[in-house]
Amino acid sequence: VRVTDVTCDRCTLTSTSGDLELSGPLTPGGKYELRSGVGNIRLAPSGSTGFDVEARTTPGRFESEFPLRADPSRTDARVVYGTFGDGAAIVSLRTFQGTVSIVKGPR
After folding, report:
1. Comparing C-alpha atoms, which of 2, 14, 19, 44 is closest to residue 98?
2. Which of 67, 94, 101, 103 could join 56 in a cystine, given CB atoms 3.0 to 4.6 angstroms apart?
3. If phi over 0 gives left and psi between -120 and 50 gives alpha, with beta otherwise, what is residue 34?
4. Exposed e or buried b per residue across 47-61, where buried means at least 16 C-beta atoms within 10 angstroms of its C-beta
5. Are 53 and 93 in contact (CB under 8 A)?
6. What pTM does this model have?
7. Do residues 20 and 42 lie in contact, with contact meaning Cβ atoms separated by under 8 Å?
């Protein structure tokens, strides 16, 4: 599932098997959830809104082209918690098998 150039303050994408991609500006106060059972997750936020992210993948890897500040009070070997910029949007990215990527620009 690929959703591109969309502006919204809430978005939930779910797949039991398959890749998910969301690209477009994030809204301050917005909530964005991408969940896949088996598949890669790719987020390509545009604009200047920062975000607070929780990313989970087991097994798999996490990649971010955005510099994230870690939250030392939140630790879990399977979860990445981080903040980019002002952390104004909330992002949750989860796959049980695949790669989670946050990139600067759509494919």
Report:
1. 19
2. 94
3. beta
4. eebbbbbbbbbeebe
5. yes
6. 0.92
7. yes
